[in-house]
Amino acid sequence: MRDYYEILGVGRDADTDAIKKAYRKLALQFHPDRNDGDKQAEEQFKEATEAYEVLRDADKRAAYDRYGHAGLKGAAGAGPGFGGFNFADALEIFMRDFGGFGFEDLFGGAARRPGGPRANVRRGADVRVRLPLTLEDVASGVHRALKLQLNQACEECSGTGARKGAAPVRCHGCGGTGEIRRVQRSFLGQMVSVSPCPVCGGEGQRIADPCPACQGEGVRREERTIEVDMPPGVSTGDYITLRGSGNAGPRAGVPGDILVVAEVAEDPRFLRDGADLVHDLAVTFSQAALGADIEIPTVGEPTRVKIPTGMQSGRLIRLRGKGLPHLQGGGKGDLIVRVTVWTPTELTQDQEALFRKLAELEAAPPVAGEGKEKGFWSKVREAFTA
Description:
Strand content: 15-25%
Oligomer: single chain
Number of strands: 15
CATH class of the largest domain: Mainly Alpha
Number of helices: 12
Strand order of the largest sheet: 10-11-15-14
Number of domains: 3
Shape: elongated
């Protein structure tokens, strides 16, 4: 796949305005309405739009600059590179950002979509779905089937909204363009204002004989099952976009998207920091002083950690690769074990006798202030670089 900066012909330090200007020039050059359906031009139009959609977004651009195309494929919600990008997506993006700037004049008539004369096809609403996950799901990635109530194209009228055998008619109010233009004169000269046609709502056509099954809307509410694959390493708020899988647009309109948002439940065993996990481990006086081999949990099978002799409360032990997968790939994070020396609140007579004997034999602790303990996250960072 070609470099996005190369496709748009801009440098890696280009600002948003330069990226938008470069895309606009290419989009006008390769737009299907200017190239009579030429397949190569369509591919170039799609390629330029995909590059623009990534580089215009600060988060996607940062991921692309750091990891290249692999960064977009691995990141949930990263956009075109992750969820698929087709010609319909390219047209939607183009019309979204440039559809209201007079392109109909550049194309020699009303802006059109392939397959029909309608000037303004209505897009279906997007659907946002929250997907509950556990840390085990995050560790392995999951495949889920979700049942949703979605607007689907009416089977009776094939989504047109017109009674079977009938057809939509061209709007008399706008002549099929979907727009009303008004010319006003001022001391600055002529000013042209463009607004959606009030008769057809900007669609360019009317339903004279509506379908009785959908009352002319072209959609009906139905239950549908969608399949989603959530990759390993996601965090709460990460999302996957299923393009074109959302609600069908009214009267054969373009379908919306489904955004599947990860919602990772907290696990009382761990504190999470990206791909790294922290586990608090309480040990007894004797285990801290003499050392011990203790079983601890991980996301998966338990493992064992060796407590060295003379272990101090608050010290950290790092277990490499026992954390969660990195979202962008490249292995796993670490499991940091934070050791706390547990002080019993109640003692038996035998325990009290032993502690009193120990008090007679033990050495004095360090003077207060010497070897001052660092903050917890400072010690975590220090453990990572050890």
